[in-house]
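thread: overnight batch results

M.L. [08:02]
morning all. the overnight job finished for the chain we discussed friday. pasting input first so we're all looking at the same thing
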Amino acid sequence: TYYSIVTKIEEDFSLFVVFSYFCNKRKTVMGHTDFDGIIFADTLQDFNALRYAGQTVHILCLDGNMGFTFQGTRYNIAAGDYVILPNAELGSGFSVSDDFQGMLMGLSETFVASIAIRSNYGIIGHLSLLQNPVMKLSARDFKICEAALRYLRMRMEEKEHLFREELVGSLLTAHILDLYDIHARSRDVSQLPEHTASLLRDFIGLLYNGEYVRNRELDFYASRLY
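M.L. [08:03]
and the structure it wrote out:
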């Protein structure tokens, strides 16, 4: 009937108004908020600032060389190497050659946790990267990682995108899953049970809080974790 049609139009229009308000409100809020979940650096000076900001740092070497010390071991990387520093403050003595070119990215722990990747492989990779943070990429894997980082950085510039943070989070998730795949293929390791992964996460948290300085006995960690 005429009245039912008019009522339906009014309801649809009301929903449209509400949705438009939500979008405009979100645009206003996001337009004035700096997203710091991912930060890209172009120089070693910018990179050094990231290292002391509680960031996990990723470095893809495109050309030249970079040297650094991590956990008492000296590393020298070249084009095709991908570095992930789970705790960048453990690194020191960073230097680059005159022809160094690289893509340097800092990730906040809070943002990475918010994307909630459904895989326990992250804890395996985390422990492994604390021992050796350098991954040697094949030509194919190098192209995949370079393309992902360049595209991620390009989309981060779209500050007026109404769902920018969600978009960037999805792109980062895809890149991290590629890194899991690269790392796992090079080491032939399997997934961890959820309970084991949870214990390892808690254990790493204790180490990062400095417990390894104050407590060196196995019984202490056993009592805290189990």
